[in-house]
Write a structure and sequence with these properties.
The complex is a heterodimer of chains A (219) and B (325). Chain A has 219 residues and is an alpha/beta fold. Chain A has two domains: 144 residues, Rossmann fold (3-Layer(aba) Sandwich); 66 residues, no CATH class. Chain A is 34% helix and 26% strand. In chain A, a hairpin with a 2-residue loop joins strand 9 and strand 10. In chain A, helix 3 crosses helix 4 and helix 3 runs parallel beside helix 5. Chain A is globular. Chain A starts with a strand and ends with a strand. Chain B is α+β, with helices and mostly antiparallel strands and 325 residues long. Chain B has two domains: 183 residues, no CATH class; 82 residues, no CATH class. Chain B has ten helices and four strands. In chain B, helix 2 packs antiparallel against helix 6, helix 3 packs antiparallel against helix 5 and helix 8 packs antiparallel against helix 10. The longest helix of chain B is centred in the middle third of the chain and has 43 residues. The chains are: A alpha/beta (219), B alpha+beta (325). At the A-B interface, helix 2, helix 3, helix 4, helix 5 and helix 6 of A face helix 7 and helix 8 of B.
């Protein structure tokens, strides 16, 4: 699904923050991406989301060389990826329902075609009674679940989550992890960036460990 | 809040849940992705309104001048004047009669009228005053010739005949005056175009600044749209729709005000008729109307301003998106 070959990344004229990355993410897989703060987890996620270009090396996604893609081509690939941000990035002027339905609006779908599906997903993540609420009145856990719902509503093949449990208590963190495991069982490849060792101990999965800009893979 | 139990299935787990029909049915229509109040809408609409008003005034004023100049030119162009100078030893009355005969014999002439001695004297009264004895003054006599609507008469032949038979006569076909009038009209049109270009430039700059401000305010929205796979075209469309509406609103207010103003001026022609000021204005500018073409030009301009606003914002949005990616 994703292949990194000798990938390096630097910002401006600074030192390389990611060096010689060689790894792959296969379909239906589940992995944690971990490492100390500042190790480059978010930068690596942004490379996978095509919102950054590598300074060197080759990234291929869904059998396409990302360096040769047009802007529209990159946008089309992003539609096959769901992203959950640590700070949720929900749009404050939209309701929970409208936030979750956003990927469908971007795809130009008719609202009548996706309305029921969005409501079903919101029920599934436990937000069935918060459909019309704006993000400002949601709790941290509710916001995180809304963000996850938005990331998976268009049935992406790959789900990237950046510190999804960073802003919630351990109990809710475990529940969110179960949500990701269920999504993985339904066929979505999952990459969770986290430095929460307790969370990783909850589920036996592949670990990608970033240290001093290099990636170590523990299958 | 409890979490749903895991479901072992290849299909998405939430597919097995049924959304309550009442909830689905009663969902309100989705809000715009870019909130209306995040756009500096009112001030931009005012700027576009003022610019459209100024542009409409410029178009109207230019059209009034062009129409008036065209009327003057056609009036003057249908008339020529022959001046017969008094020269000692020559019978001016006989010269005038001969001139009239020569003119009448030329094809393309509708009417010939020679001013009498008294009429010619009255022409100089505004400068010399009345009550003076003008007998001894060498006042020239005028012969006014009205041309018929067909092809222009042969002025070269007429000039030659006058030079041969009445040496004191000079023919003036007002060519120089008409040429000056044309130059003045062209200058007025050029000045109008220059003002329009300036107004357009200010409008584009204002829209560009407003779009940049809006994009900066809505940067988080743009980024989220970007991450969920929106193309630049889709994102630009969200902003462009707002700016097209704003441009159209501003244009309609400015252009509409100008149309009302010109309609009032046109109506005032009737109210002022017969007054000294009204008559002077009518003599200078005719009936002070921009005509149907003027109103159509203002309506087209409203549309043009809306399109310019939308295109300027689209260009700025695309540039901002290029910087993000």
């Amino acid at each position: 699904m994703i292949r990194f070959e000798n990938v390096g990344l630097r910002y401006g004229l600074g030192p390389e923050v990611l060096r010689d990355l060689n790894f792959g993410i296969s379909g239906h897989s589940f992995q944690f991406l971990t490492g100390p703060s500042g190790a480059g987890k978010t930068s690596l996620l942004r490379l996978m989301l095509l919102s950054l270009r590598p300074t060197r090396g080759l990234i291929s996604m869904f059998d396409q060389d990302t360096a040769t893609l047009s802007k529209d081509g990159r946008a089309n690939l992003r539609r096959r990826i769901g992203i959950v941000f640590q700070d949720f990035r929900l749009l404050d002027h939209l309701t929970t329902y409208e936030n979750v339905a956003l990927p469908f609006r971007v795809l130009g779908k008719d609202e009548a075609d996706y309305r029921a599906e969005v409501v079903e997903l919101l029920q599934w993540v436990g937000l069935g009674d918060r459909i019309g609420a704006p993000p400002a009145v949601l709790s941290g856990g509710e916001k995180q679940r809304a963000a996850i719902a938005r990331a998976v509503i268009a049935r992406p093949q790959l789900l990237l989550a950046d510190e999804p449990t960073g802003n919630v208590d351990p109990n809710l963190g475990q529940r969110l992890l179960r949500l990701f495991i269920e999504l993985n069982k339904s066929g979505t490849a999952v990459v969770i960036a986290t430095h929460d060792i307790a969370l990783m101990d909850e589920y036996d999965a592949r670990r990608l460990v970033l240290h001093e800009g290099r990636l170590h893979v523990y299958d | 809040m409890s979490m749903t139990e895991p479901i072992e299935a290849v299909a998405e787990p939430w597919d097995e849940l049924d959304a309550p029909a009442s909830v689905v049915r009663t969902l309100p229509a989705s809000a715009p992705i870019v909130p209306k109040n995040s756009i500096a809408g009112r001030s931009l609409a005012v700027v576009v309104a003022i610019m459209t008003f100024l542009a409409s005034l410029t178009i109207g004023a230019t059209m009034v001048v062009v129409n008036a100049a065209s009327d003057w030119q056609s009036d003057v162009g249908r008339e020529i004047t022959i001046q017969v100078r008094p020269v000692p030893g020559r019978d001016i009355e006989a010269d005038v009669r001969r001139v009239v005969e020569l003119v009448r014999a030329t094809p393309g002439i509708a009417d010939v009228r020679a001013y009498t001695k008294e009429e010619s004297s009255r022409l100089v009264e505004p400068w010399l005053g009345s009550g003076l004895t003008l007998e001894d003054l060498p006042i020239p006599r005028l012969v006014v010739v009205k041309l018929s609507s067909g092809p222009r008469p042969d002025f070269t032949g007429l000039r030659r005949a006058l030079a041969a038979q009445v040496v004191t006569a000079t023919l003036d076909d007002h060519r120089r005056w008409i040429d000056r009038m044309r130059t003045m009209t062209r200058t007025a049109v050029a000045a109008g175009i220059a003002v329009l270009v300036l107004v357009l430039a200010v409008t584009v700059l204002s829209v560009t600044f407003a779009t940049r401000g809006t994009m900066a305010t809505n940067r988080p929205i743009v980024e989220v749209l970007h991450y969920v796979g929106a193309t630049d075209r889709f994102i630009a469309g969200q902003f462009q729709r707002h700016f097209l509406t704003l441009g159209f609103k501003g244009g309609a207010i400015g252009g509409g005000t100008a149309i009302i103003l010109f309609a009032l001026i046109e109506a005032s022609n009737g109210w002022l008729a017969g007054t000294a000021g009204g008559d002077e204005l009518a003599a200078l500018f005719g009936n002070l109307s921009i005509g149907v073409s003027g109103y159509v030009a203002i309506l087209l301009q409203i549309l043009f301003m809306a399109i310019v606003t939308a295109l300027a914002s689209r260009h700025t949005v695309h540039r901002t998106l290029a910087a993000i990616d």
